[in-house]
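[scheduler] slot 2 assigned
[scheduler] job type: sequence-to-structure, two independent chains
[scheduler] chain ordering preserved from manifest
[runner] begin chain α
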Amino acid sequence: MTMTKVDENAEDTHGLCGEKTCSPAQVCLNNECVCTAIRCMIFCPNGFKVDENGCEYPCT
């Protein structure tokens, strides 16, 4: 499972991020969708299937 620590530059949204749309469990950080540790634990306690952006639905 890929998880990223979020800093103050992260946008807490699952909308458009650069040219991509983040899943509800991801945040936009520097125009990239990243999965934060806390969102992974909340949305998918057993982890996510991973795509090129990191954590993504559906849960594994």
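[runner] end chain α
[runner] begin chain β
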Amino acid sequence: MADARRRARQGAIALLVSGGLLALVFSQMDTDAALARLREADWRLIGLSFVLSFAVLIVRGLRFRFLTSQSPFSSVIAAIAGQNFLNRVAPFRLGELSLPYLLHRTTGEPPATSLIMLVLVRLIELWALFVTAIGAVLGWFGGAEAERVVLLAAIAAALGLTLLTFRRWLGLGLRLADALARRTGLAERGAVRNALDRVHEAATGDARLTLRQHAALLLGTVAIMALQFALYGCLLRSLGFALHPLQIIVGVTAAQVAGALPVLSVGSVGTHETGWAAGFVWVGLALPDAVMTGVYTQVVTLAFAVVFAGPAALWWVRRRRDG
């Protein structure tokens, strides 16, 4: 009963946070202009965006397949399709946990190892985003935004250092999690204690990424970023916004960083739109247009995620039934 009440409170807070952010965003949108652009939207470019979104899913699946020990590509891509959808609607980025869970349930993949690989993937993605953003900001603004470039460089350097000392930080995080579990009494629960022990065992093991896995991780991340920038560029063009690639990189990076924050909201609803608007206003797009395109890209890409998650869910149900 206590858990149910806690989840209900968290759900209510998530709705309030997302609702508040959306209310703020919509208050800046020119509804008539937005509807006029939607009526003139280029469906061919929306279709191309769908193809690019599917390509992102495929590359994500290939990248993580190289990081698993025994999961076939079909299982990995189905799990990632589900994870992508859940991340769009679950608070605190809790949808991330569905990937190690699903892979373990269907292929026996060690969930602790999958979780560690997932954390590594997300860190590399964030680092690559900030490094790319630095180049884009310098290319677009020159030296006019030196203070912000220094801030971006500091964040990128911190992320890079974290990656270089990943296992050390992972060990520290596990010690903090263990202390928190003991303090809150969660350590007395067998499932929690077992999960912490398994992650600790995986983190302190001798396994290291091979050269092939490093290559897959780095090349896959670069390919995913390029495809995502192209995807959002197509969606912007479908509404008649022909922006410079550097503007797209800065704006999309702001949206992705905002959406990746572990905020108690309904997934990335509200955070994506807010980050998108801030990023694109920074590079010169009018606020009403930045807000409208932020909402538009959220709705369209969420629809893509639903389309991909549907067949994945059916595949998982059939896989469990055939067992």
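[runner] end chain β
[qc] chain β: The chain has a mean pLDDT of 84.
[scheduler] slot 2 released
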